[in-house]
Every structure is written in structure tokens, then in C-alpha cells.
Amino acid sequence: MRLLLRALALVAAWLVVAVPTALFAFTHGSAETVVASHDAEVRPTLDGRVHLDLGPYLPDLRFPVGGRVGIDVEVGKTTASTTTELAQRYAAIAARPQAEERRVGEVVAGLAWRAAATGAGVGLVAPVLWWLVGPARRHELVQRVRGGARTRRGVLTGVVAVAVVVGGVLVVVRPGERAPDRVQDPTWLPLQAAYPDVPVPPELGDWQVQGGLFTQGTRRLLASALDTFDKSTVFYDDLVDRVPEVAEQLRTPAEDETVAVLVSDRHDNIGMDQVVRAVADAAGVTVVLDAGDDTSTGQTWEAFSLDSLDAAFEGYDARVAIAGNHDNGSFVGRYLADLGWTRLEGEPVEEFGGVRVTGVDDPRSSGLGSWRDETGLSFREVEESIADDVCALDADDQRIATLLVHDANLGRTALARGCTDLVLAGHLHVQVGPDRVVGENGRAGYTYTNGTTGGAAYALAIGSKLRRDAQFTMVTYRDGRPVGIQPVGVRTDGRMQAEEYVELDLG
Prior knowledge:
This protein is an alpha/beta fold. It has 13 helices and 23 strands.
């Protein structure tokens, strides 16, 4: 019984120290990440709100999250060249916030675990000291206290110990510290009350804006952002609502078939992600093949687009990707790999249905202009290299069922030699094929170029609606080989239609 009481006492002592320490560490912790295309610092709070600090020239925003834990997000650098462009980004991301919410939630969860570990560690100090002192020394100390035997050294040690503890508490709490003077005390108003002449969508009814920066410029920016938010929400939600109509046009796969959805050239248009997923689910899709150009420049601020892509196809049996010419640098491929996507780098993989797939990133890089720069191997060298690898596998009875590239020209040599069943690509923003090609060895294969899934006219598709017709494609596999293709098109006016299913004659 005595041992149990001692154990309970030690646990109580640990909790008394660990819980406040963890809570303090959590509410005073922070982490850097990318939020809404900005470098940002995230700090947890306990006020149940998300507070967006948008800098000195734009008013702050806040809204409730429906729980006790809140978040302060202080945004930093971004790449937007104008405030209007930035406002449109905000609106498009706010209309589809799930991926950003998941990212920030993961950051806060990481801070919570770190704070818990800190609290647990600090809380162990007292029990560990109790154990290190040992029963004999504890008994001696108790006897001294009971007998009044206090040496000058013991008193001095006790005073120092108490002073250290009290000093530590004062350093952390800092009682009586006067808050710094502010240029303006925060006054929070509902968006509609702050801007009565600007229509505020009902979904933002509980959002508040900090008073004071109500200039004509911010009023115009807000009106533009809210208009983009409203149109984006309505346009893409309406497309999802129309999926049952398109579902009637989709081919139903047989039990021994696997269906993949091919996406390409999203160019940051996260609005289309939910549409593709809804149609794909109706078509029995379990795999996504990404032919690249998910971003416009491949920079870290475009992580929101990759987060949205990842969230949209969460739960699929396989998620396979390569990078396009606009996915500059190593960020896009590395980020998708960290999220659990299979990134093709020239080696064959079998991620689904016994289908052997290979592919490579596009060797070119593009900015927002019309130029192209080749880095490392040239386009032609990569084309020849991948053809040699694919044909070597074919000769070894390991035929590649699908060669996934960004530009179909990267696969033309392999196809001309008859070494692969199907080359899938994007890049052109318009559909080309499926075209049958009989290779030098007498074996047939197909080449198919998907249109732009993001409805991109140029390299950037983010906005309130499609800038041009969008497309994604269902690819059906049986016994490890492609057997059919069915494109789905989305018009700029919101009409959506599945084209006829095309059977692939591989001979």
C-alpha cells in the first residue's frame, strides 16, 4: 500500500509539472511553413479562432474554428507581383481550403507532440531527483527537518534553490510587464459591417476584419477577392453536382479490370481537383497518373496546389507522377514523393494490377514566358535514353505497359521501335490521339496526349473558373496491359461530357 501511495504521489508530482509546462510550450511554440502561397509562421492559441496577420498594408482577418485550439498565422514573403493577383490567389484557395487546413493542422499537431514531449521531460525532473537521492538520504533529510538540525550551508542551499525556482517562474510569467503601445488597438468587425457596400458570401458570414485599414484600395481588393471566391465556389460546386449526369456516359469496368485517371497541366487550378475525383469515383477509378505541370513555376509557394492534388486522391491504390516542364527544379517531385506519391525516375514500377509503368521528368524548364531552357540532358538525349531502357526491358520479357511522360515526343522513339503498349502525356493543353503506331518489330502501341486538366490557357490556371476547356482521361487496364481510353471534357460554360470509350488494339 505504501509503495502504491508513493507511486501515485510521484505521478501526481509529474502531472503537476508536466501539464502546465506542455501547455505553456504549446501556446508559445511556433513553426514555419507555406500557407496560401506565403512563407508563414504558425502559432497555436487557445481562443478557438484562426487569425490571419496579412502584414502592415492589409487588414487582418479572423474566423472561428469550432474548437478550443486556435491558430495565429503571420504571413511573410510571396511571389505575387500585384496585390490584385494576391487577392485572387487568396480567394481561390479560400474557396477550396481543405488542403491548406490539413497542412496547418499537421503543423499544429507536430507542435502539440513537441510540447507534450517537453512537458513530459520537464515533469520527470522531480521523480528522477527523488530516485537519485535514494531512500537513505531522503530519510536523513527528513530526520534533520524533524530534529531542527539545519546547518548554515543547508539553509543557504535551500534559499538558493527556492530563488532559482521563483526566478525561473518570474522569467516565464513576467508579472507586471506592461504591454507595448500599439499604433491601433484591435477592433474586430464582421466583414459585411466593415464593408456594407460589398456583397459577402454567406459562407464567410462569421469572418471578421480588423478595423482601421478601410481604404478605397482595400475595399476594391476585397470586392475582387470575394467575387472570385463566390464564382469559384459556385462554378466548381455546380460541376460536382452534375457528375451523376456524366456517370451515365462512363464505361463500367469489369471485375478483372483496373481503371486509372490521367491528369496533366493542372497549373495550380485546385478547383478542378474535386471534380476529377467525383467523376473518377463514378467511373470506378482506383489509380491516378499525373503527367506533370501541376504548377506554373515549380516554386515552393505553389505547395497549395500539390497539397490539394494529394488530398483529392487520398485513399487510391496507387498515385504515380512525373514533373512537367513548368515544374521547375526539384521541389515538385520531392514534395509529391514526401506525400507518398510514386515518382517515376526511369525505373519500372508495378504499383497496380500487375501493370508495369515507367517514366521520366521533362528535361526542360519553362518560366511564364514562351522560352524553353534545356538543363542537363537534352530532350533528344532523354528520348533516346528512355527508349533504350524500355526496349531492353521488352527484350527481357518485361514489356512496359505504360510510358508516362509530359511531352509525348519523349516516348516516340520507344513507340516507333515497338517497345511499349502506351505512351501517356500532356503538355499541349489539347487532346491528341489515341493514335495507333506499329513499331519496327511489328508490335503495336498507342500514343495519347491529354488536354489541360486545369483549363489553363497559358501556364497559370488559378482563378474563379476555367480559362479554357479542361480534360482528364480514364485509362482501363486488364491483365497488366492497357485496353481502353475514355476522355472526359469540361467546357468553360460548365458543360461536362464523357467521350466514347476507345478500345486499344494491341494485336
